[in-house]
Write a structure and sequence with these properties.
2 domains; flat; 5 helices; two-stranded antiparallel ribbon; mainly alpha
Length: 140
């Protein structure tokens, strides 16, 4: 698709704008085939509970979703309606950053109350936290 972007960009922009202006989303873009995907290749593939359902939406539906999220965030920020604790659809925020924020608060409260605190971090969460800290200091 990247190879054809110069040809596709105008029709895609027109479809996104039309969808937003009509406040309509085609039912074809809402439908996605659901396929079972095994959770781990080392587990028994004959057990139904070892699978999870995976659906793939169309590329255009994801583009429209991103456009809506971008404009909604811009509106919320410009009108001081942005929720500081909200992480969904926020640049640089994820479930991991939310978890770190919540856990950091719990840790600080426990320390203030004189309770012992033991920390266990998953490596990916710790690396993500380090990256965010580096980004924070470099962006200043």
């Amino acid at each position: 698709m990247k190879d054809c972007l110069d040809v596709l960009i105008i029709p895609i922009i027109n479809l996104v704008n039309k969808s937003l202006s009509l406040v309509a989303f085609s039912r074809y873009m809402k439908a996605a085939p659901v396929q079972p995907l095994i959770k781990n290749h080392s587990i028994d593939c004959n057990v139904l509970n070892n699978y999870r359902p995976v659906s793939n939406l169309t590329v255009l539906s994801k583009v429209i979703e991103r456009a809506v999220a971008f404009h909604l965030n811009k509106y919320l920020i410009n009108n001081n309606l942005d929720e500081s604790l909200k992480s969904a659809y926020k640049s640089g925020h994820s479930t991991e950053t939310s978890l770190v924020r919540v856990k950091k608060n719990d840790i600080m409260v426990s320390i203030d109350q004189g309770k012992p605190v033991i920390l266990f971090f998953f490596l990916s969460c710790l690396l993500h936290l380090i990256q965010l800290t580096i980004m924070h200091f470099s962006l200043g």
